[in-house]
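Q: Got a minute? One more chain.
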Amino acid sequence: MKYTSTVLALAVATWSLLIAVNFAPAQGTAFTYQGQLDSSRSAANGNYDLQFAIYDGLTGGTQQGNLLTNSATAVRDGLFTVTLDFGNQFPGANRWLEINVRTNGGGTFTTLVGSKISCGFAVVEFQQAAQSLTGLDFAS
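A: Always. Here it is, folded:
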């Protein structure tokens, strides 16, 4: 009798898990970016306007998606966190992130030197790892 109860409990648990997996929401396109901003070789503090754009090449690339502006982004001890959503702009090819900054409500934006960083392959690797772990195809 104890064996039957254990098998029944495992069957119910497995069935519940399969139901949960089938109704799991798809991964969205937003991601969190954490950065560090220095001003005159010291950690920046205050509110800054930040712009973000992604490109399909490090130099001479074409901008993909919209330019995103995060106004009055809090920067404390040089650190900031923003949520970015460029939409479906990560087809598996590498993308480079460009960051522009100005003081809150200030004049023109300044492109941060060396701010174009590769950001596409990590997303693809995460998706592939998730698919291989579960054996499910989330793309369909």
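A: The chain has one domain: 27-134.
Q: Perfect, thanks.
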